[in-house]
Amino acid sequence: DNSKRLFPELSVKGAGGQLYHWILPSFFQLLKDLVQEGREFAIIFRSFGSNLPRVLSSVSRALNEGAHPLLDMKEILQMYKVPSDLIRCSRRGIVVSRAKESISTRDGERGLYQYFSSVQGLGGFQDYYDWWASKTFSIRGGKPLWVDPFDQHVQHIFINDHIRQDDEHTIVHPKVFLDPGGTETRTACTSKLYDITLVQTDLLWAISHPSYFTQTPLNCMSVSVTTSSLGFH
Q1: What is the pLDDT of residues 144-201, one digit of tens each?
Q2: Cβ count within 10 A of residue 206
Q3: Helical H runs in the chain?
Q4: CA dist 37 to 59, 72, 76, 201, 232, Å?
Q5: Alpha-carbon gap, residue 133 to 118, rounded angstroms
Q6: Domains of the chain, residue spans
Q7: pLDDT tens, residue by residue, 76-126
Q8: Of the four listed, 14, 118, 154, 173, which is most buried by Cβ atoms within 10 Å?
């Protein structure tokens, strides 16, 4: 309770004055486990809303100031400054902007995949809600995710409670490369990547089991994906 009063960024007040965590303890347990195992990783928060700066501020306080009431997380991981990073989609393509840097699908989709594969530490991007709405909240307007089934060194995993196996009502747009080192991508059905690259958060399990987010990527990495398994020929 003292931590909540001293660090209001860690919680938000709901109905009846009840305080709710911005970040679940199981997420912080994931960070701790990954660091202790010596894994190379990056975590990027993706949000359509305006809550991203506050969420990142909460994580920053927990990591850099030891503010989390349950875990000692101080200085275990590099934390980006609270960013104003954006991902914008349109008929002309996708543009990813961070500070003064930007990269676009007009320069090729491989560059965007390499960009996200090279990210270090924790950060975040605000995705473009209006584009998703214009595509009737379907896979076609979802948050873009580039997947290279030929890459043996990097696996991108997207965890979101709104991921659905119904492509007409889902929140992520997986774009899969067709050839090793190639630039051409094709949209994959969510069901083909479900629990491999796309994970629908089990909220009750994530709340009640501290190891939930630690076990999730391990489950994903135990399954391989190929273009043939995706139905691409």
Answers
A1: 999 999 999 999 999 999 999 999 999 999 999 999 999 999 999 999 999 999 999 9
A2: 18
A3: 2-6, 25-36, 52-65, 109-117, 129-134, 190-193, 203-208, 212-221
A4: 20, 16, 12, 23, 35
A5: 30
A6: 2-220
A7: 555 544 455 899 999 999 999 987 889 999 989 999 999 999 988 888 999
A8: 173
